[in-house]
TrEMBL record:
This is Class I SAM-dependent methyltransferase. It is an enzyme of class 2 (transferase). SUPFAM superfamilies: S-adenosyl-L-methionine-dependent methyltransferases. Pfam families: Methyltransf_25. It comes from Aquamicrobium soli.
Length: 217
């Protein structure tokens, strides 16, 4: 699938959903706030969200870390429009910048005029990105020394009843969402290849997985 194809698909999926996305997703996009709480960027840090969607996470993080600057990219123009409005409503336009970009081919110097970030996070986006492993590997290369990549997404749900797993995955397929059961393993390989470290945890009986890949200082 080309960049234009995937971006167009995301626009079609979220053209109407974006207006009530945050009101409904809070019930099952679990682990987003623990991920934000774990970012703990240093003072005057640069923080990037890949797949920023409606801007909900960027606004939350910017409020929680008032001494950092935030950047967000998304491949859906529809979502970026909603995110832009959310940033303005929150009065954060001086600290949050948004841009249309494909995560796999993202050039931060060209888009934002900087080469790296102290923190990068991806919230429930790798399950929607066809080339998600390449996106995570590329994100690692954009970390400043000592930087961290935080990713939260659907887990393997091994601790949940089989009927629940089946129903959830059927429903997710309607929205082109595919849980990545090997997310922790992929994160570990990226860390190992880059001389970094990786930690992961399973949340809510493995409903969600949270990984943190750190680059050496």
């Amino acid at each position: 699938m080309t960049v234009l194809d995937h971006g167009g698909l995301m626009d079609r999926v979220y053209r109407h959903q974006r207006h009530f996305y945050d009101a409904t997703r809070k019930y099952y996009l679990l682990g987003r706030d623990p991920m934000i709480a774990g970012l703990k960027p240093p003072p005057r840090a640069a923080v990037l969200e890949i797949g920023c969607g409606t801007g909900r996470n960027l606004v939350q993080a910017a409020r929680q870390y008032p001494h950092s600057h935030f950047f967000g990219i998304d491949i859906s123009q529809e979502m970026l429009e909603t995110a832009g409005r959310a940033v303005v409503r929150a009065g954060l336009q001086g600290r949050v910048r948004l841009a249309f970009a494909d995560a796999e081919r993202f050039d931060p110097q060209r888009v934002f005029g900087r080469s790296d970030f102290d923190r990068i996070f991806i919230s429930y986006a790798v399950s929607m990105i066809p080339s998600w492993q390449a996106v995570m590997a590329q994100a690692f290369t954009h970390l400043a020394p000592g930087g961290e990549l935080h990713v939260v997404d659907f887990g393997a749900q091994r601790g949940l009843p089989a009927w629940f797993r089946h129903g959830l995955r059927t429903w997710l397929r309607w929205y082109h969402v595919t849980p990545r059961a090997d997310l922790p393993a992929v994160a570990g390989r990226i860390a190992s290849a880059g001389g970094g470290t990786c930690a992961h945890s399973r949340l809510y009986r493995d409903f969600a997985a949270l990984v943190v890949v750190a680059r050496a200082a």
